[in-house]
Design goal:
By secondary structure, this protein is of the alpha+beta class. The protein has helices spanning 3-9, 38-53, 74-92; strands at 19-24, 28-35, 63-70, 94-104, 108-117, 129-140, 143-151.
Length: 152
């Protein structure tokens, strides 16, 4: 099942949902994440990322980690947030399935994330990094939209 099929099956298509995958390239996966506020768009972007990385619906909440990210602006905060999550997969060998932003400003994010140790049977696609290819972060009348490309 491809990523587009998976997302369609979960009913998360369109701007009324949390996110949607907008491109399915050989070496990249691209998605848009939506939120009525910064907290929601950052949580939804993390969920979309882990939908690519693992079978998120099967990952428990056994381990809790606190993450603090700082950046020069909101666009870089989004990239740094997602990069930090990717690093935790690689370094700490954890999959995450719940993301709770505790505090967020345009330059600082503090979150608690929940997951469990990596299990091969839960893995999907190895994500190497967030790229700047077609990256965008904008405020809309409905809230925020982040367009994110992942190098796989």
């Amino acid at each position: 099942m491809g990523k587009k099929d998976k997302q369609d099956d979960q009913g998360k298509e369109g701007k009324t949902g949390k996110y949607r995958f907008i491109d399915d390239l050989t070496s990249d996966v691209m998605f848009e994440a939506y939120g009525k506020d910064l907290k929601e768009v950052f949580e939804n972007a993390a969920e979309a990322l882990f939908t690519v990385i693992c079978q998120i619906e099967k990952v428990g909440h056994k381990i809790e980690k606190e993450i603090v990210v700082e950046a020069d602006d909101t666009k870089n905060l989004m990239i740094d947030w997602l990069q930090e999550l990717i690093a935790r997969v690689d370094v700490e060998e954890l999959f995450f399935s719940r993301f709770d932003i505790q505090k967020i400003t345009p330059t600082i994010l503090k979150a608690k994330v929940y997951g469990e140790e990596v299990k091969p049977e839960l893995g999907e696609t190895v994500v190497k990094a967030v790229t700047y290819y077609k990256f965008d972060f904008k405020k809309t009348p409905e809230g925020y939209v982040a367009t994110v490309s992942l190098d796989i």
